[in-house]
Amino acid sequence: xxxxxxxxxxxxxxxxxxxxxxxxxxxxxxxxxxxxxxxxxxxxxxxxxxxxxxxxxxxxxxxxxxxxxxxxxxxxxxxxxxxxxxxxxxxxxxxxxxxxxxxxxxxxxxxxxxxxxxxxxxxxxxxxxxxxxxxxxxxxxxxxxxxxxxxxxxxxxxxxxxxxxxxxxxxxxxxxxxxxxxxxxxxxxxxxxxxxxxxxxxxxxxxxxxxxxxxxxxxxxxxxxxxxxxxxxxxxxxxxxxxxxxxxxxxxxxxxxxxxxxxxxxxxxxxxxxxxxxxxxxxxxxxxxxxxxxxxxxxxxxxxxxxxxxxxxxxxxxxxxxxxxxxxxxxxxxxxxxxxxxxxxxxxxxxxxxxxxxxxxxxxxxxxxxxxxxxxxxxxxxxxxxxxxxxxxxxxxxxxxxxxxxxxxxxxxxxxxxxxxxxxxxxxxxxxxxxxxxxxxxxxxxxxxxxxxxxxxxxxxxxxxxxxxxxxxxxxxxxxxxxxxxxxxxxxxxxxxx
Length: 498
Hints:
The chain is of the alpha/beta class.
């Protein structure tokens, strides 16, 4: 049968871009389809209202979260979530690939071990770090996490004085803070105070959009933006025979065919596309996860630099496997940019004048924790009768208890650094869906998974899933580097089968 391309990739985020890059680099013709616009069309780049209130760089659909339609903080331009992420890319712990060691009977026995090990991904982590041009200090103590490869750039951003104090005072108490490895070109970085959540004004923060643009210039990569995949076309035998797409500008519907397909629309989007295509099963869309993220904020007597410069620089893994009062596996703690006045109002400080909020912001230092959201079949993505995407999700009590304990630990970290007062709260809001994963999880047995260890959909060897939806558990770090590494691994498998 005649095919339009060797490979069609759906979604331009971390996984889709890496998969497309690897395929096109070998001479294959690749079509990459992205629902959003090119990132450069969303201006102005550093305006808080445009980016975080009006959500211009974010997905423009309303997704029904627990029956409430919401615009989500989910990347909606070329590059997906990497166009608005904070740039931190970390390797996980080896134990993240063996969750049964820490969660035991809280997990089904089939989930005690991933179908691959850290060692299987190790060479691809190095490739991913080079692809995203990470910079950082490789000699830091990353605790249970694996350090980045020695080839990453040692040119790091100057450490903000408040972060030097944060690290020094907590090292004196026996903790092991480290510099976050960042996908940021330090020679170009303007050290904006509002990095995460915003489009980078000059491309210093590396994104999947840059990976795509570079591949398109050098190879046979065709990119369609503002184009929505309606469904995968299947034959009577169940084989994938193309994709049906909708041009959001012209209203035209077209169909393209390829020898192989890469699905990378995110844990919400990829599951919805399969369901809209009539590809269902007992686990499709189920076990939706995202990290439970307690936030701790310290208020200091003197300005922290939070309103003037980049302060997302520090990580802690001292509580990766629990706190003194809650000895259960948790995850990373990392610093965050301070929210602007409009986001502070949205977070509950609506009645306070903007001038006071701006004064307060100059004295803030926030920390965020990562707590694994354990898989639950009731947490799921589905397609409603009206065609809209629905998500049902609640954090379990075990997740909430660990989050509260990690929040207490983070306030202690901030007080040691001199915070006059601290407060912590749970997950930011229903609109935040960072680190989404789990809806098309991989495994050895189709009785317990949707895709196999090589991320092929069971029974459909030409369809590979290469985003965070394949993760059977959510790990204790952000998934971006693991998604890129795994997409590079899977691309090698896909290419061998063509």
